[in-house]
Amino acid sequence: MWTVIYIAPTAKMAEMIKTRLTEEGFLVKSRPVNLSKQQFEILVPSGELEEVQEVLNSILHP
Fold first, then answer.
1. Per-residue CA distances from 23 to 26, 33, 35, 38, 44 (Å)
2. What pTM was estimated for this model as a whole?
3. Residue ranges of the domains in the chain?
């Protein structure tokens, strides 16, 4: 089961987060929220949620 952990405001931000989490060894997917807005959901397997949240915090708040 995939869980949304973050909604990125831009495609560039979504790609950066996806790349960084992938480099840390996590499975990551991103998808547009809808076609009218440029927001993207970042999804990870629900079993990795806690570990990913810690890494995501360090990415967003260095």
1. 7, 24, 28, 24, 14
2. 0.88
3. 2-60
Supply the DSSP string of 28-56, one letter for each residue. Answer: -EEEES-SSS--EEEEEEGGGHHHHHHHH
- State pLDDT tens for residues 9-43: 999 999 999 999 999 999 999 999 987 678 999 99
| Contact criterion met (CB below 8 Å) for 19 and 1 | no
The topology under which CATH files domain 2-60 is Alpha-Beta Plaits (3.30.70)
Token digits of residue 49: 């949620």
